[in-house]
Amino acid sequence: MHAGARAFLIALLVTMPGLFLSDHLADAAQIVSLVALVAALLTFVEYVGDYPSIIEFRDAPPFNRIRFVALFVTVLTLTLIGRGEAHPTALSLLLEWIGANVGDMLDFPYSPVRLMVLVASEEMTPHHLDMIRTSAGLSYLVSLVAISFFIVVVRVLDWPIRRGAFNFWVNLPLFDPTVGKDVLYRLKRDGHVNVALGFLLPFLIPAIMTMASEIVDPISLTDPQTLIWTMSAWAFLPASLIMRGIALSRIAELIQEKRRRVYAQAELHAA
């Protein structure tokens, strides 16, 4: 039942912009439906089985739940704002007002939001620039809130051992502790790399998009669905990497503490 619910939520997330925005093409709707079906199937297969395959921290809530809620809220918020362009409601106007204020607050020199606004082409109207700023500000704000909440869960609620023992193999199926250097060193290294990359990506992605636009046709941020997924990915991927880095560093701390206790007990028995 839990696997089916997760699969349904993933499918809803993927199809949400197409469901709310009525101006999508039939071919695009078929592609979105196919992607939603594949994503739901993969999620169902992953969670219905007893053994892990690719999803990390599967049995260490609320890590994946925080990430999913952050992405879901981002996509839903931007979708409602996009729908409000053609069918304004009190909720869409409120969200757009909040996004505009947040975007203006975060749009300062060399900020990730400013860099994303600079990606806009010269053909875009001031309204399109405002929509990019609003979407970037809201997306970045949701990612910051998700990261902050996860830090509170780790430090205050003692994640991931508050609900029981942490199963290393189930929660890190792609991490082989028998390969390479000491597992503690590798966890700390991977944690630091993930946090650093997550911090840099909001700055690097706009630069990469700008350089790519000189070689190939740039993506059109004037299209509502393209804008939604671009901004969601731009904010979610770095936040996800930072959360993974924090989680790996936390696991390294637990292993280090356990080793310290074992060594202390060994010295006590030897004495």
TrEMBL record:
The chain crosses the membrane at residues 32-54, 66-84, 138-157, 195-216, 228-251. Keywords: Membrane, Transmembrane, Transmembrane helix. It comes from the Bacteria. This is Uncharacterized protein. It comes from Salipiger aestuarii. The lineage of its organism: Bacteria, Pseudomonadati, Pseudomonadota, Alphaproteobacteria, Rhodobacterales.
